[in-house]
Amino acid sequence: MKPPLELAVNESGSGPPLIMLHGLYGSGANWRGIARAFEDSHTVLLPDLRGHGQSPAHPDMDYRRLADDVIALMDRQGLERARLVGHSMGGKVAMTMALCHPARVERLVVVDIAPVAYDHGAEHGGIIAALQQVDLQAISRRADADAALAPAIPSDLVRQFLLTNLQREGRTWQWRIPLDILADQLPVIQGWPLDSTPTWSGPALFIHGEASGYVTPAGTAAIHRVFPQARVIGLPGVGHWVHAEAPGPFTEHLTEFLNPEPLK
Question: Domain AB hydrolase-1 spans what residues (predicted)?
């Protein structure tokens, strides 16, 4: 058994623990805007998953290892159970936690991902390659890197998100995410770790963007098979970044689910 990594985490608020898990190329900071709405009712934990943000990297990105990292974080915080919210890669971590450590999860919210393997290798491989090809010695400011990425990544929204990983180290710039590891582990990150999938019958909410394409009818069927108590909600006209594109409706659904009357 490989030892878990110690994750960097931001904590705020008070009340029942709520852990919010970010997606690929992200960090716990991605959730700060949404987290503010829950700080009066929850102790909100925003960890950086392994290889992201301020957390250490590791060549193994298996979701069971990522889940173990978050369980170890809960142990350090003295948390027996927590409410989980996870987007994309973080959603797969949250689902894996519920399935492999069912007693540690009170409520589960998964954002724009299903318990299935995906084939977005060309898209993500292209993103990682574009980041690797930026000549970091030739840039003097973030705008230079933005311009270098624009031909391969035309979406301004996506580029600005990716550029949150560009940081200055002395007089030079560095990517804080381990691009070589992410490239190597991309099939693992896209996959689903549990061949013989158990089920989890706790309260679960799956929110997805109907314009995203990440949650298909087959994915919805897998959700109901693995999480029989799940409620699945699609937001019309919304893409993969559900909580960023539709923060109002997302927060309303999340509030209703996390604060039921009565709480079971």
Answer: 16-247
Among residues of the chain, what percentage have pLDDT more than 90?
A: 92
Token couple for 247: 């923060």
d(CA 134, CA 137): 9
pLDDT at 171: 85
Question: Residues 22, 88, 112, 146: which is the catalytic one?
Answer: 88
Distance CA 256, CA 48 (A): 26
What is the rounded distance in angstroms from the CA atom of residue 72 to the CA atom of residue 12?
Answer: 19
Query: Which residue in 135, 180, 184, 201 is the catalytic one?
Result: 180
If pLDDT is split at 50, 70 and 90, which confidence band does 264 have?
very low
Cα–Cα nearest to 6, from 87, 74, 108:
74
- Answer yes or no: 180 catalytic: yes
From the candidate CATH numbers 3.90.1640.30, 3.40.50.360, 3.40.50.2300, 3.40.50.1820, the one assigned to the domain spanning 9-118+192-258: 3.40.50.1820
Domain locations in the chain?
A: 9-118+192-258, 121-185
CB 190: neighbour CB atoms within 10 A?
18
What rounded mean pLDDT belongs to the chain?
Answer: 95
From 22, 58, 87, 240, the catalytic residue: 240
Residue-level pLDDT at 261: 62
Active site residue 240: yes
User: Cα separation of 206 and 202, whole Å?
Assistant: 13
Compute how many other C-beta atoms are within 10 angstroms of the C-beta atom of residue 123: 11
Give the pLDDT band (50/70/90) at residue 263: very low
Query: What does the pLDDT read at residue 2?
Result: 82
13 — alpha (psi -120 to 50), left (phi > 0) or beta? left
AA letter at 48: D
